[in-house]
Design a protein that fits this description.
Layout: H1 2-6, H2 8-17, E1 25-27, H3 32-41, E2 44-48, E3 58-61, H4 64-75, E4 81-85, E5 90-97, E6 100-108, E7 111-113, H5 120-134, H6 145-153, E8 167-169, E9 181-184, H7 191-204, E10 208-215, E11 224-229
Antiparallel strand pairs: 1-4, 2-3, 2-4, 5-6, 5-10, 6-9, 7-8, 10-11
């Protein structure tokens, strides 16, 4: 069960066979098929086949140049790299223990707010220090190529200054370890999402697991499952 969850290709294959909703996915092979997949879906996620804590993941990749860069980043963490359909919605973590849902939380990416004079780079550093202090050093927002890419996609550079009150999500992923925040939604979780998580845990054969869903609203029934975490935080 641990190995099924560790390899994202295997996870997806098992969940799809069980009739659960999963995004389209492709193993990178360097052929024209990689670009064809991007053209088909217009926006993709690139990630190592085996990885955790958001390491090596690039979200909302939209052109060939960004795709090649994202593949190189993912390969630093695993030789096998996946391209996945980018599905919109909230990042929902559902925790299952003993094949029963016990908790659910929406995770949001780190967001800075402009003051009219402080550069984006400094705002990111300040937010990172606050997140580190709030999580006993567990969270940190890296000033890496992925952060630069997300800032650039919003039409800015790290040296730009946001206007007073202007907000900017500086990462596309919502992982705690890269500065994301966690918001409990257990009381409003859709029963259908809970059933999907419990069924997924059974078909993977793992009684304690954290699933990453993408949902328009945790209280509604629509979902895709993007990962199963065998050692959930």
């Amino acid at each position: 069960a641990m190995s099924r969850c560790a390899d994202k290709r295997v996870t997806r294959r098992i969940l799809e066979r069980a009739g659960l909703n999963v995004p389209a996915q492709r193993v990178v092979d360097g052929s024209d098929g990689d670009l064809e997949f991007l053209r088909l879906h217009q926006s993709v996620v690139v990630k190592p086949a085996d990885g955790e804590q958001g390491a090596g993941i690039s979200v909302d990749v939209r052109d060939g140049r960004a795709l090649r860069s994202a593949i190189r980043t993912a390969r630093k963490h695993d030789e096998q790299v996946l391209i996945e359909q980018c599905c919109p919605g909230d990042d929902l973590r559902i925790i299952v223990i003993g094949y029963k849902v016990v908790a659910a939380a929406v995770r949001r990416p780190p967001v800075i707010t402009g003051d009219g004079f402080t550069p984006i780079r400094t705002l990111v550093e300040k937010l990172s220090r606050r997140r580190e202090a709030a999580t006993d050093g567990e969270a940190h927002i890296p000033l890496d190529k992925e952060t630069e890419r997300c800032v650039r996609m919003a039409g800015h550079s790290l040296d730009d200054v946001l206007e007073q009150g202007e907000t900017l999500a500086v990462r596309k992923t919502a992982n705690l370890h890269t500065g994301g925040t966690i918001h409990d939604v257990t009381p409003v979780l859709s029963p259908r999402l809970a059933l999907a998580a419990e069924e997924a845990s059974r078909v993977l054969g793992i009684p304690l697991v954290g699933f990453d869903f993408l949902v328009p609203d945790p209280a509604r029934d629509d979902y895709v499952i993007v990962e199963a975490n065998e050692r959930p935080g």
